[in-house]
Amino acid sequence: MSNIIFKNVCKDYGNTQVVKNLNLEINPGERLVLLGPSGCGKSTTLRMIAGLEKITSGELYFGDKLMNDIEAGERNIAMVFQNYALYPHMTVWDNITFGLRMNKLEREEIEKRAREALKILNLEGLEKRYSKELSGGQRQRVALCRAVVKQSPFFLLDEPLSNLDVQLRNSSREELVKLHNLYRPTFVYVTHDQIEAMTIGHRIAVLNKGYLQQIDTPEKIYNNPVNIFVAKFIGMPQINILRVNINEGDILFKNNRIKLSDEKRKLIEKRSEVYLGIRPEYVKVNRDKTENSMKGNIAKIENYGSQKCLLITINGEEKVMASVPNDSDFKRYEDVYIKFSKKNMLFFDIATENNIEMEQ
User: Fold this and answer.
1) Is the pLDDT at 164 greater than 80, yes or no?
2) Which SS3 state, helix, strand or coil, does residue 86 take?
């Protein structure tokens, strides 16, 4: 099995460049998620792998083989589209086996692959139905089944779960991971949903405006984002980004002094201002004042089921989001004290918005 390598790849549509100088290596057998907002270039990147989009400049390799001019039908990839792309005049069985028959596989081999895939994806008994007779979840599984039977080393998925309801999406994510564990193809998965990215990917490649921002494990991207864009895009509720002053190595925030550890002081030395990033779960809320805590007022409470999120105003203006257990009895408009976890603070440069620690 080969790796997939992008070397300085660009993709233009007329005067608009949608993928910009992409350098990326996808390891054999891994699940890589391309994550980003609409228009960031993630689907275009996937389609360049598939051969459905021509590369404007740069080089794409499968292993040591240059793929720029190799036609899509010769790349031995399996692809699942957002709209499923099933043949409406064919039954489930015919949709699944059509590609295998076109490739002239032996009848016994077609039967074996199809039966195995139908069992894995819980489609047994639906073989004679047409797509109009299937639910959205069943159509999605047929599309997956059609890709699985190809037994390709490359499995490309372009937002395949976006048309499903929440419950079906959750179960379908489990099925995708199970499929990968069985066959171990190289998964490249496109989504704008960070939950899908965090639960499916071995690694996540975050894109924005055509540029690759960061590629790493879900844990590292969450805990150590390369810049403010990545920090905000990953995590729900969203990270707090606060502009703060630095005075004698400590933070000054709305007339509150927050003392820092020696390690954090060294990190931001010689700066007068930084952006402080702190995720809501690392904002501690108490009714009593403690060292380094700041007085605030609860402006809003959102119930997320497993937790509550408190929107707290400091000095009546700056807003900080804090996560608390769902059984907490805090009330709206109540005065509270908040404290930031020192070890979980992130600092971003004012000018570049890059993570200062990662620039060291």
Assistant:
1) no
2) coil
